[in-house]
Amino acid sequence: MRSVTYSMGVSLDGYICGPDGGFRWTAPDEEVFRFVTDEIRQVGVYLLGRRLYETMLYWETADQDPSLDASMLEWARIWKLLPKVVFSTTLSTVQGNARLASGGPAEEIERLRAEPGKGDIAIGGATLAAEAAASGLIDEYRARVYPVLVGGGIPFFPRHERRVDLELVETRTFSSGVLYLRYRVARQALL
Questions:
Q1: Which residues pair with 87 in a beta bridge?
Q2: Taking the chain, what is the end-to-end CA distance rounded to the nearest angstrom?
């Protein structure tokens, strides 16, 4: 069965963006960018909400930007080809290799897991991830922790009244001070 992963940059105090909505502090250096590019290669389909979809629209045509270096052009190529499912109540159309979700996250994930396909089902965006987490659908949390405190904003982890036990699978420290933490949800074996 395909794994559902949630991977984003996060401040040390737990936010994906600050109180002003800014996230420039998550701009990756070359080493982190290569890592994120390698991570996205393992994705078979990417689920995202409207705000993240609109932020990422640049990458649909970025291959036409003459100022991009080879690594950014590679990212653009991978992103452009990657199937995407957009969750929105306000958009009526989407561009590129994307489609609007026909149901909620639980229905879409169930459908995607039932279809033949390779690669992870990745979730981008804290709001969408919170919905999936509330239904127990996230298999792995992957946080790139940036050495910054932003003091508020949108939290990386969903706020709900449910305990989730995690198993540490991988760590990596980058020269920039960014710390990668990969945790698998510890599922209780059914007896």
A1: 49
A2: 20
Q: Are the CB atoms for 52 and 123 separated by under 8 Å?
A: no
Beta strands in 32-176 (DSSP E): 43-49, 84-87, 98-100, 120-124, 140-146, 154-155, 166-173
Residue 190 DSSP one-character state:
P
Q: Containing H/E element for 11?
A: strand 4-11
CA–CA gap between residue 8 and residue 172 (Å, rounded): 15
User: Would you give per-residue pLDDT tens digits along the chain (191 residues)?
Assistant: 899 999 999 999 999 988 888 888 888 899 999 999 999 999 999 999 998 999 999 999 998 999 999 999 999 999 999 999 999 999 999 999 999 998 899 999 999 998 888 899 999 988 899 999 988 999 999 999 999 999 999 898 867 767 889 999 999 999 999 999 999 999 865 44
Query: 3-state class of 166 per DSSP?
Result: strand
Tell the residue number behind the tokens 């508020």, with chain if given: 152
Entry pTM: 0.90
Please tell me whether residue 113 adopts helix, strand or coil conformation: helix
